[in-house]
């Protein structure tokens, strides 16, 4: 793979430690800042994916039997390499996703923390032991690897979300086939090269670029034992039902529509600063972004809208390579058109468009996919901008009379990924976090993305499956428990047959 943006280069796959071509179909990869495609990505066919699964299967026996401490050392070396190559990786992220470089560095850092957590695997796999569960009988549970595991990831975190998955999977002794987003393939591939350099044996991590054909092969091949997915809810549901029907263990994290609640007693300046980053950071293309704010009380609503309007006027939109910018472009022209159409639908539905970002242009980047921040007031349930995940820089203010009314709105929504409340009232905050039907909750924290040693997971239609991503849940997801009961009777002790059910009575 060339990293210097060769105009005709096609990005391929990474199988058994080598770059390979595969699949007759290709798709352009765009730089959203300029709207130009300098490279294309190969879309793997079934045979190519099967070759990746075969490579993972072949690497599994030796890797499974590699001592956990040695597997952990690979993770420690990878952490160092990711840090050393941070600028290069973040440049690749920004060139295909569009996010500003500082944001790409934030993504990478959170990914590295997952590699760091995976390097604690000898401790995490220690298991459970009980002595003398019966006469001369000891019992223990151990956590064994599953075999070949797979991951399918979205465009918006091309390094971090893969790092949620494969480091813990392989640290636990599995091998892995990763299918990243075809829109942002390069940084993910570079990460796989660094893993090889860190000492990961060829075939333990394989990357196939591609689309539905590649995904369907992973979902139905009997050699794949478990599938992790992160992406939109319709695809997550499809992955979950298809993977489960094929007898696999599946976790599928889906989309979101996260609400913030601003109480009348909140520190409004701090709340506005927090909301600006949460709504418009990464152009709103985050599953933990805040696209809806519920203002409790009319005065709160009026103050919020006024201050958000002032703050938006100071925002700088432009290429992500310029760190002076707050917000880069949207990822593709198709997505840009989709987000703009939501703004039109918001107006048609009767919401008040307070700030219209549709006229934004960036000098010298007229073909880039730039949409300025948009602010709606008086957004109500049933409106398309209320119901659907837009995944763009569109923030809506909803008015409510009480905290309970705000909580009822959140609980009635189909998604339950993240939420937060801004208040100075500990009792209100406690009531909110205790009762709200959402998986990740912030109190005066706008993006409550759990750290690497907790697990990440939404509720309702934001997660299909029982276990969340990374943290302790990942150790459980990528292993299965085996319980061994062992007896070493003293020499010469003879016992007759026992026909009652064994117990310690
Ligand atoms: P997407 O669902 O379009 O794609 C995700 C992955 O699925 C990609 O690898 C893609 O190639 C594949 N895919 C797409 N359509 C498919 C199909 N019909 N059959 C099989 N595979 C298919 O998502 P995206 O646009 O890349 O990412 C944005 C979405 O991801 C948003 O909905 C966002 O909320 C969600 N997301 C969720 C989380 C989370 O943790 N819950 C994190 C990041 C992103």
Q: Please count the beta strands (DSSP E, at least 2 residues each).
A: 23
Content of β-strand? 15-25%
What is the average per-residue confidence, as pLDDT, rounded to a whole number? 96
* CATH fold title of the largest domain: Aldehyde Dehydrogenase, Chain A, domain 1
The assigned CATH architecture of the largest domain is 3-Layer(aba) Sandwich
Radius of gyration equals 25 Å
Residue share in helix? 25-40%
End-to-end gap: 66 Å
Whole-number count of domains: 2
Largest sheet: 7 strands, mixed
Task: Tell me what the structure shows.
- This protein is an alpha/beta fold and 505 residues long.
- The chain folds into 2 domains: 22-125 and 132-254 and 462-480, Aldehyde Dehydrogenase, Chain A, domain 1 (3-Layer(aba) Sandwich); 259-443, Aldehyde Dehydrogenase, Chain A, domain 2 (3-Layer(aba) Sandwich).
- 38% of the residues lie in helices and 22% in strands.
- The chain has 16 helices and 23 strands.
- The strands form 6 sheets. The chain has a 7-stranded mixed beta sheet, sandwiched between helices. Strands 10-9-8-11-12-22 form a 6-stranded mixed beta sheet, with helices on both faces.
- Helix 3 runs antiparallel to helix 7 (186-197) and helix 10 crosses helix 11.
- The longest helix has 19 residues, at 46-64.
- The site of nicotinamide-adenine-dinucleotide has 28 residues, from helix 8 and helix 9.
